[in-house]
Amino acid sequence: xxxxxxxxxxxxxxxxxxxxxxxxxxxxxxxxxxxxxxxxxxxxxxxxxxxxxxxxxxxxxxxxxxxxxxxxxxxxxxxxxxxxxxxxxxxxxxxxxxxxxxxxxxxxxxxxxxxxxxxxxxxxxxxxxxxxxxxxxxxxxxxxxxxxxxxxxxxxxxxxxxxxxxxxxxxxxxxxxxxxxxxxxxxxxxxxxxxxxxxxxxxxxxxxxxxxxxxxxxxxxxxxxxxxxxxxxxxxxxxxxxxxxxxxxxxxxxxxxxxxxxxxxxxxxxxxxxxxxxxxxxxxxxxxxxxxxxxxxxxxxxxxxxxxxxxxxxxxxxxxxxxxxxxxxxxxxxxxxxxxxxxxxxxxxxxxxxxxxxxxxxxxxxx
Amino acid sequence: xxxxxxxxxxxxxxxxxxxxxxxxxxxxxxxxxxxxxxxxxxxxxxxxxxxxxxxxxxxxxxxxxxxxxxxxxxxxxxxxxxxxxxxxxxxxxxxxxxxxxxxxxxxxxxxxxxxxxxxxxxxxxxxxxxxxxxxxxxxxxxxxxxxxxxxxxxxxxxxxxxxxxxxxxxxxxxxxxxxxxxxxxxxxxxxxxxxxxxxxxxxxxxxxxxxxxxxxxxxxxxxx
Lengths: 367, 224
Ligand SMILES: Nc1ncnc2c1ncn2[C@@H]1O[C@H](COP(=O)(O)OP(=O)(O)O)[C@@H](O)[C@H]1O
Ligand SMILES: [Mg+2]
Prior knowledge:
The complex is a heterodimer of chains A (367) and B (224).
Chain A: H1 2-10, H2 12-48, E1 54-58, H3 72-79, E2 84-98, E3 106-113, E4 128-132, E5 145-148, E6 153-161, E7 170-174, H4 176-186, E8 199-204, H5 210-221, E9 224-228, H6 229-235, H7 239-281, H8 286-318, H9 329-348, H10 351-356
Helix pairs in contact in A: 1-2, 1-8, 2-7, 2-8, 2-9, 7-8, 7-9, 8-9
Chain B: E1 4-15, E2 18-30, E3 35-39, H1 46-53, E4 61-66, E5 69-70, H2 76-85, E6 87-90, H3 102-113, H4 118-131, H5 147-159, E7 165-169, H6 177-194, E8 197-202, E9 213-218, E10 221-223
Parallel strand pairs in B: 3-8, 3-9, 6-7, 7-8
Antiparallel strand pairs in B: 1-2, 1-4, 4-5, 9-10
Helix pairs in contact in B: 3-4, 3-5, 5-6
The complex binds adenosine-5'-diphosphate and magnesium ion (MG).
């Protein structure tokens, strides 16, 4: 062990290129992961914030909130289904918002709701909104009156809420009639009548099974498709594709990290074979030499991870807030575990070679 | 008790279809304070004999008894411990650990053993450095040492764990005569003062006067 650490300290320059390469890969992994998480968080907040377990779409809407309509009669049928404790109307209008003192329009999602949303208080007065804190970056402040949609409908911001965005648009949570007005003005063709919503969220009665209730709702109405909150999140446009593409890039990056470590330690071992032979000849066990290599792998990876994480956090701080990067602690842990596993596997490639070094090679005979 | 007994030791190497007999029914006894010179031409089996005596190679036939223990019975793990504690090697090519100082290279064997106090090991290493004329080189890396100095560090490494048998393979082959004589005198002096046994392999007959006894080897066959 001491031998391994001494070598690291004394031959820093030899380990530096690998450490730099690994650090860059860690930066890449954290930024890619942060972007994936940021995109996911910014796209799905309005749905993830729902406390209700199920959400009902019109069957023809193919799980799109903007295409879906739930009439009051359908809602009444839903409420009669066994296992349904309460229902909450829900609708969204994507609009541009004029912010006082700003020239650019802010992207906003005006969300009409009736309650049961985590972190969002009961619906505010007509003409007012709870605004997502991310809109602060677009110049919004509490007390401002912003104007949304083509006819610039005024909405007064009365407080902040967090992590409630929808498809990268800042959430503006309003009572249902305000939402209907905004929807009618911004997309006249999509206007809905009184008491009509796009979705109905369903809170389950105690002990009710989500899948059973969902099937019962669709049976009772005959015109709806009821899915869980998690399924609704995945049904958002682009989310599945985003997840799979990023996951593949991240997997390849881990693979590259493993290869970098594997190649470096394989070359190092090859170059040190005569010296390792001498150490075995003077009484080093294979276990000690393998332990040394693994120690070096772990230390190199740990340092690379620290450097990479610091650089990633630094970049995150200077990247403009419009870029939805969110470096979360769970992502940081995931990347750490991932690079350590990749490095350990990479380092392990050289174990067999070390074990097979013949101590007799030290004295110039043997193979 | 003799430091080393070879009993009917035979060592063959497989080379393609043919068999090379590197050591043929060798019998040898080295008393516990004798310095034995083993001389013979290149390819005669000197290194093979030394490797077998030091537990680096196992014989094809016969027994190797070191300090009363038959090491042909040893497991790989036992042999590792045996090499660390019972014998000291000085190799033909010096091969120090490049990133360790002279002192640390000498201490390597003690460190691998992982027991005994670090302070005692350090004191011992410093004394060896002193005896080997390397006191001022203690903190130098091998790259900063001359060939002779490196060879002396290797001698220190072999002596560090106070082995009862010291095995030296052509220590002077890479050095000029004057340096070679110095190194030889150093080895002999160190071994004599410790009253331990040693086998010193050389093909240089001028070196034999340093030894108590000379054995020659030709084509794997020993002759007194
Ligand atoms: N690993 C090996 N495989 C095959 N033949 C070997 C091997 N090691 C040594 N030999 C052969 O055994 C004989 C003795 O070698 P060695 O003990 O190295 O001689 P020396 O040290 O006296 O020069 C030589 O013929 C050599 O070619
Ligand atoms: Mg030889």
